[in-house]
Amino acid sequence: MTTTVDTIAAPWRKRSAASSVGVTVGGAALLLALGVALLGPLLAPFDPVAIAGRPRLGPSAEHLLGTDQLGRDLLSRVLHGGWSVVAVPTLATLVAFGIGAAIGVWTGLAGGHRDLVTSRLVDVLISLPPLLMAIVFISAFGSSAVVLVGVTALFFVPRVVRVVRGATAAVVASDYVAASRARGDSTTQILRRDVVPNISGQLVVEFGARLSNVVMFVATLNYLGLGVHPPQPSWGLMVAENTLLLRTNPLAVLVPAALIAALAVGVSLVSDRVAERLAVDVVAP
Questions:
Q1: pTM for the complete prediction?
Q2: Alpha-carbon distance 92 to 148, whole Å?
Q3: Nearest of 278, 210, 197, 267 to residue 33 by alpha carbon
Q4: Which GO terms describe its biological process (predicted)?
Q5: Are 253 and 245 within 8 A, CB to CB?
Q6: Would you say 27 and 20 are in contact if contact means Cβ atoms under 8 Å apart?
Q7: Dihedral Cα 39, 41, 44, 50, nearest 10 deg
Q8: Distance, CA of 199 to chain centre
Q9: CB of 73 within 8 A of CB of 248?
Q10: Crossing angle for the helix pair 251-278 and 83-110, to the nearest 10 degrees
């Protein structure tokens, strides 16, 4: 006989099972992409920038993914091309969170006029088209790894500020913070004992969600030729370079594109699972 408890628990079990499948798939995809990016250079059979055979060869025993228009081994370029898609987004997200979290906590604690001015400035910065502004900055300062990290972090700082400021303001408005202030606790004590422990879950989850967005943003810049310069390989750049091979050797495009998707989707699914476990709502980009 079905009880009320069973009726209530059934949807939860379905959601839990679906979430478990999602985190398994996401974790596997993430491990695959990270494994290729980090260990790939050790396994590459050829120099990724050297001519290894005739141009536009199809997959064979010697060249498992074939060769590109210049005769470079595609497998070797894939194995070497993930570093920038992992390192640059990770560093950019860390920088964005370091700066954005500090500003967000500061404004959330301060409130008043300071909070209002910062919030309006954040709204203005978020309204700017990131890709267009990135093109302007990279055209002016070049496309080195440092510039790419800086430009990417710059455009994601306001989004982090908004999330952290909202989380901090919610904690500051709580009764236990009011009690701490009534006891005469300093701002530093309130920050350490009340604010940070209560927003840390939100920060962890938001870092994963933001990292997924940054991966796609950096891959797009590479695709447009604004990131890694040829002949150095990058998954995003390879998708653009090998478009002409799509009919004769689709793996030349599909493999790097799939690895980018695996990295972004894997991070997103894992961060969603963390959000579920911590009962945290992920703020939209």
A1: 0.86
A2: 8
A3: 267
A4: transmembrane transport
A5: yes
A6: no
A7: 170
A8: 20
A9: no
A10: 30
CA torsion angle for 187, 191, 104, 156 (degrees, to 10)?
A: 150
CB 158 within 8 A of CB 97: no
Side chain identity, residue 103: I
Question: How far is residue 234's CA from residue 59's CA, in Å, rounded to a whole number?
Answer: 20
Which pLDDT tens digit goes with each residue over 128-153? Answer: 999 999 999 998 998 888 999 999 99
Residue 115 burial by Cβ neighbours in a 10 Å radius (0-12, 13-18, 19+)? middle
Ramachandran quadrant class, 184 (left: phi over 0; alpha: psi -120 to 50; beta: rest): left
The conformation of residue 75, written as its DSSP 8-state character, comes to: H
Say which amino acid occupies 140. A
Which amino acid belongs to residue 43? L
Q: Which domains does the chain have, with CATH numbers?
A: 19-278 (1.10.3720.10)
What is the distance between the alpha carbons of residues 115 and 131, in angstroms, rounded to a whole number? 28
| CA distance linking residue 267 with residue 122, whole number of Å | 26
pLDDT in tens, 213-248: 999 999 999 999 898 888 999 999 999 999 999 999
What is the DSSP annotation of 163-219? HHHHHHHHHHTSHHHHHHHHTT--HHHHIIIIIHHHHHHHHHHHHHHHHHHHHHHHH
Distance CA 62, CA 150 (A): 40
